[in-house]
């Protein structure tokens, strides 16, 4: 049977009509089917009906009189091959793949149970059975439950379903029924923590389905109202009680281990709660200090907790429960959506506390975002933070919340538009943005500026760039591709603004208003700012393909070529141009002040004015370090580009030898997001090919030595950097090693063995160490 | 998109990846094997057994039927005599109006018959069949840990277009691979 006839309407209609007829025959007394008998009371069916447009037809279906089509049905069936099915129009691949075959252990959750298995006990059943204690828990029992609950929180944050990790703890189902105060307060805190964490993650909106499951058993969570504001106090109270109690004991260590856990929970909870509250708070600096203090206490408690892990009850060997008492691992198996059974892995206790320790460190790092008061340095911070904290959804969300509870608000109540304006001023200080500037109050100028920044906000490009840094690394690349396209319209607008400012300056000059015109002297301030950010997005997009392992070895050549030939150079020239503008402005200001001081005031003022520019000189090279670093990256890209050229020429790179392969198509696909930009103009495959052909003209040995030279340059640049960070040291090692490898190959080593080398990216995400096998 | 849920597996189909850098189909073509299309129900069990054996990811009977009865000509077998030793299951449909897109859902080769180019031959045959029907591109997903499969597809000119985090039920990441046969320019992605 061919594809089209499977969905041919006659077959389908015959089959459904016959099914209806058969159904009618079996219930002949009834004239009509009730809704429930048609399955319409099934919640799943109702949901589909509500959402589906075809629902109307279905409702009509049982209401009409029936026609006997048994014969037609059998005739239609005769046309089918054995095993063939009539396919509903709406039954596609998704439905086919979602179907569950009953009794297949890979698909049927129920197959995980033994015949002898008792149903998993609920909270009430467990109490009735005496399986869980509600009062007078020993320190060991409390520690066991607390540690298991921290493991569940961590496992939840790692993407597992809330029901299948957290709510397997029966105590969480109804904490108010727990009589033991420490346990009750702790469990209440966990429930509130869940609510607050969910709010933060939902608010930050940098989560994807693969990161985190936002939804869970809301019925269980809703049963007791969340009161996050009271948690800190009640934890403190029970801690104090236990401390008093333990003082009367000969061996207070066990109770103190309980206290440390309660205290850790209190400070962790307070941090998360305050982060959530950031949006509504006037003074963010003060809250930030509070958060930081709480984080410090939390991180001091963690070593104490980790030292006392063995004081708690431990999970039983072979059991799925993270603790012997209080957990019912399969309690929600039957309430899960109909899907294939997914294995749930709850982290063990040491690993969970390790996670929490790292998370607290990440939060502390996130607090430093408050220091970054302009776009340039904030973006740098977000990019670095993502490199270090990209895996943890809560850490990423917390940074977003701290930076801007609302997308239009940065650092407290400063509107985003104001923030961007301030940022451009910090970045390259366009004269018109200086409030003391003679034309700053000019309504025409103000209007143009207002329009530009409003446009930046409406396009959302800049704010979006920062937000994208909050997504997981794989999604970042997808989103950057779209972001880069957005830059084009803003570039156009920025260029227009620049030329307007220049025009204005010329007009003033024509009017004979020389000082004003000079002061207005405008360069390409706004376009440079926009382009610089666009280049950065392009660079991250391109290089992230290495980190995500998207590029085949034979593709490395053109990927490294583009930043070597263009992109890094663009970045350097944008920054150099910016520094030059700043310098020129500085010189002009100096010149002006000289004129003023010579003509007007006395000697004291002169001295003061003369001292000022000297101090500023140092500040006017704010991009020095970044430019130097880009020079190193440029040499590394050049080294890799020529190394790949040499290896290819030497026959050491496996090339696709298929009639389906087309390098031009691959090239175009890899640079697709850049194709829509006006600036930088897209570079066609033909241009690339010409440049590559030219590069590859020398012998392989010569090419190896050219590559070695680039790596040597990179090494020199990196060695010249004072106080290098870890990344620079890693790059230095890569440059050194590759320099040696290229020289070895240039001397004809392994000439007879044409094996593809190994490219080891373990030191750096963007640059490999080339290893000969 | 429904087809993003179909999963793909290849186990050690590719020839030794540390071998010489130039390899061509001719050298490794297993001429002693025969290849045929899906014909009837009796072969369904064969497919199920071969795929089930290799896969962690379960497929319901409907998934198999969806593919083999809609696109029987894109379900191909490799045979050693009358023994089934390899299978590829794929489809071709319009994910965008007027743009036929091929999709390779499953590929498996019997363990005893690997490293002989059987998998590659099956993929090439399927792509050729798709190309005859004007396929603009062919896509598939594969586990990022499945190096032989990645090497196989790369040698045919596929690119790894996207990384899909925790795509499979076992928590492993996937790559979405794409081979563009006709350069349709700036085609939007159909698989987001």
From TrEMBL, chain A:
Name the UniProt record assigns to this protein: Protein MAK10 homolog
Keyword Cytoplasm: yes
Chief location category: cytoplasm
Residue ranges annotated for the NAA35-like N-terminal domain, each copy included: 82-213
Signal sequence annotation: none
Residue stretches making up the NAA35-like TPR repeats domain: 366-770
Keyword set, alphabetical order: Cytoplasm
Species of provenance: Drosophila ananassae (Fruit fly)
Taxonomic lineage: Eukaryota, Metazoa, Ecdysozoa, Arthropoda, Hexapoda
Compartments where found: Cytoplasm
Residue segments, region Disordered: 312-342, 593-620
GO CC annotation, single: NatC complex
Similarity comment: family membership: Belongs to the MAK10 family.
Stretches with biased composition (Basic residues): 606-620
From TrEMBL, chain B:
Pfam families recorded: Acetyltransf_1
Signal peptide: none
Residue ranges annotated for the N-acetyltransferase domain, each copy included: 33-182
Acyltransferase recorded as keyword: yes
Cellular component terms (Gene Ontology): NatC complex
Family matches, as InterPro entries: Acyl_CoA_acyltransferase (IPR016181), GNAT_dom (IPR000182), NAA30-like (IPR044542)
Keyword hit for Transmembrane: no
A molecular function GO annotation: protein-N-terminal amino-acid acetyltransferase activity
Alphabetic keyword roster: Acyltransferase, Transferase
Family, as annotated: Belongs to the acetyltransferase family. MAK3 subfamily.
Name of the protein in question: N-acetyltransferase domain-containing protein
